[in-house]
From TrEMBL:
Annotated compartments: Plastid, Chloroplast
Gene Ontology molecular function terms on file: mRNA binding; structural constituent of ribosome
A GO CC annotation given for this chain: chloroplast
Gene: rpl19
Family the UniProt entry places it in: Belongs to the bacterial ribosomal protein bL19 family.
Name of the protein described by the UniProt record: Large ribosomal subunit protein bL19c
Family matches, as NCBIfam families: rplS_bact
Domain of life: Eukaryota
Organism: Microthamnion kuetzingianum
InterPro entries attached to this UniProt entry: Ribosomal_bL19, Ribosomal_bL19_CS, Ribosomal_bL19_sf, Translation_prot_SH3-like_sf
Claim: Transferase is one of the keywords in the record: no
Sorted UniProt keywords: Chloroplast, Plastid, Ribonucleoprotein, Ribosomal protein
Amino acid sequence: MKFYPLVKSIEQLQLKLDLPLITIGDTVRVGVSIQEGKKERVQPYEGTVIAQHKAGLSTTITVRRIFQGVGVERILLLHSPSVQNIQVLRQAKVRKAKLYYLRDRVGKGTRLKS
């Protein structure tokens, strides 16, 4: 692959450098830009990080929240232009790399230790 260094150099230019350190179990608030007609606004999405996939420019996090009694998960590209800002609100101590077991829990069972 003779084009690999060229692709890698272009990806380096598009990386966001001001991202906070995000770990599994963190409660985060992500500002996602939403386009409604001709207007664009930033919609906050708050939840617990249950998974992370580190792959340079394609790094993603899976954020889970409970909305009106239904679990909603969203996979967000960290370096995407639609992700405006990320705030880490709370950090939790976890012992697993993926917190998929939270999908089966409801209410107080979803709480993580700080």
